[in-house]
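Let's practice the habit of predicting before peeking. Look at the sequence and jot down your guess about where helices and strands might fall. Then scroll down.
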Amino acid sequence: MIKILFIALLCFHGIIHLMGFAKAFGFANMGALTKDINKVQGVLWLIACILFLLAAGFYGFSKYNWCVFALLAVGISQYLIISSWQDARFGTIANIIIFVVTLIGFSSWNFHKQFESDYKLQLNAETKKAPDLLTENDLQGLPVLIQNYLRQAGVVGKPKVRYFKIEFKGKIRKDEQAEWMPFKSVQYNFMENPTRLFFMNATMKGLPVAGYHAYKNGKAFMDIRLFSIFKVQYLDGPEMDLAETVTFFNDMCCMAPATLIDPRIEWQEIDDHLVQAAFNNQGLRVVAMLQFNDKGQLINFISNDRYNAEAKKRLPWSTPLKEYKSIRGISVSSAADAVYSDTKGDFIYGTFQLTDLEYNGYLNKR
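Done guessing? Here is the structure:
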């Protein structure tokens, strides 16, 4: 709702500037503007209008550079308002509102640039050679359940995965009393040197919240900010490192089945539907149970190694999976919950809907 209102303000405020343009070129008799406006000023009124409308459009499509157009528009607009102060002074109120929101927008842009910069740095470090194809020989030595999972997922005969991109939408909450916060996220995972870069935009009580999770070289941090400025929560340290190792391994299992041929994984078959897996990275070792259905699809990932920030201790963590579908020829779950469990029962703190998935930059977009 706030986003819609701000777009409406940008559009309405921009269109009003056409009055100055119309008066300068004699297109209409603008009685509300008593001061003469020359044609140079008239062109500036038109430019301000266009910039406000561009800002509204880019903001509507969540393009971070909307704030550049907005800042230019406010600057030109306020100059024109001052030159016609008696008639246009109330436009200053709209400019102040837009200016404040634009400053917040710049903060959001800067916060997101950190994420984008880290991604590009990691991508540039990747081997440029095309990945080999994953073959039946790569499945040798894996538990039968894992072999079947990779076959039914359709990864055999496809390129091995070096890195992948995931986009989600969903909702999260802090505890059972808290309101759900809708969110959209984008993340990049790299396999050679396990790295996970996750950026989220959410809404908390109508206010924008951004979060950046980074995991690289066995170290992790989580930075949550209101308006992308004020830190709501920041976590790092050994427990965070271990928790994000679990999350990284979960991404491998659920979103990139082809990565399960990784030699850093230790396997132990439990029964016809259950396999235990241990993932090792940078001296960190996490263990998870992978549960499969009769179709060979992964239906749950359960680990006791993930730290819960609210409980301030490790709790059993699981991600029950559902709604399998084919994305670019690979069968993966398109919906999941994130669940912590304790003696009181299960607490679902997040629901995730997969909106896009790319492997190896979708082979550099073909």
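How did you do? The first strand starts at residue 163 and ends at 172.
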